[in-house]
Design a protein that fits this description.
The protein has 296 residues and is an alpha+beta fold. The chain folds into two domains: 103 residues, Phosphorylase Kinase, domain 1 (2-Layer Sandwich), CATH 3.30.200; 171 residues, Transferase(Phosphotransferase) domain 1 (Transferase(Phosphotransferase), domain 1, Orthogonal Bundle). The protein has eleven helices and eleven strands. The chain has a six-stranded antiparallel sheet with strand order 1-5-6-4-3-2. A three-stranded antiparallel sheet has the order 7-9-10. Strands 8-11 form a two-stranded antiparallel ribbon. The N terminus and C terminus are likely disordered.
Length: 296
């Protein structure tokens, strides 16, 4: 089948043979095992035939996308991802499509989903949680500087790299908002900020709220506002009603309480989260290796 491609040059860390502008097609890849399934298709491990470069290939069915009227959302996700370069954000390399499917060429994160890892361990120790909090905060500082709000941070959208480093993925709900003010209700129930539930305009502080929810869930094993029904969860979020298990340390309690503030502007800023004594004491952040551009 004939394929078309997006004209996005691949960046640092990719073999020179893969970086050239070219028309990609499915025949260029050896397809391996499935890495995950989504609403519109699946993600597969893949290897580029010439360079043997390993990547993840996200396959999206056009019919499913059209049926849900989310073509614009995918277009926006590709546009946003193509400009992001950060060690804790999953790299987007390129895309192409044929008659029935769209293919996204993405960085392969061998550690898989944080969600599955959390299920396996039930909850994480302080060092691991603090490391993730520092990594996600740093990634979001970068996103917000680019005027991008993610809006759907949750363990299912966080992947783990080769050294266990966090990789923020799935920018399907993200938005490039020059004013950083939005009103759309989106995201996942347990992670929704109070202002989103109330239908008020929201800004990048919805992502900050999610860092607090994530920190709690990693340490405790469940989300702070979890309830039997969606409406009960909404009510708890709206009232910021949650309790810490007795074994959560004072430092972690202090951090989470300062992030989960009902008033968006009073939430602890991301830069302050990174500098919080509990994070500084416990974080074991390792930067992934930096590759040099392959020489011509």
């Amino acid at each position: 089948e004939r394929s078309c491609t997006g004209i996005l040059k691949l960046g640092v860390g990719i073999p020179e043979g893969v970086t050239k502008l070219k028309t990609w097609r499915l025949d260029d890849f050896e397809i391996g095992r499935p890495l995950g399934k989504g609403r519109f298709g699946a993600v597969y491990l893949a290897r580029e035939q010439n360079t043997h470069f390993i990547l993840a290939l996200k396959v999206i069915f056009k019919s499913a996308l059209e049926k849900s009227q989310l073509e614009h959302q995918l277009r926006r996700e590709i546009e946003i991802l193509s400009h992001l370069r950060h060690p804790n954000i999953l790299r987007f390399y390129n895309y192409f499509h044929d008659r029935t499917r769209i293919y996204l060429m993405l960085e392969y994160a061998p550690g898989g989903e944080l969600y599955k890892e959390l299920q396996k361990h039930e909850h994480f120790e302080e060092a691991r949680t603090a490391t993730y909090v520092e990594e996600i905060s740093d990634a979001l500082i970068y996103c917000h500087a680019q005027k991008v709000i993610h809006r759907d941070i949750k363990p299912e959208n966080l992947l783990l790299g080769l050294k266990g480093e966090l990789k923020l993925a799935d920018f399907g709900w993200s938005v490039h908002a020059p004013s950083l003010r939005r009103t759309t209700l989106c995201g996942t129930t347990d992670y929704l900020a109070p202002e989103m539930i109330d239908g008020k305009a929201h800004d990048e502080n919805v992502d900050v709220w999610c860092v607090g929810v994530l920190c709690f869930e990693c340490l405790v094993g469940y989300a702070p506002f979890e309830a039997p029904t969606r409406n009960e969860t909404y009510k708890r979020i709206s009232e910021v009603k949650f309790t810490f298990p007795t074994w959560v340390s004072d430092g972690a309690k202090d951090l989470i309480s300062k992030i989960l503030n009902r008033i968006p502007s009073l939430r602890l800023p991301l830069k302050e989260i990174k500098k919080h004594p509990w994070v500084e004491k416990n974080s074991r952040r390792i930067f992934p290796p930096v590759y040099k551009e392959a020489e011509e």
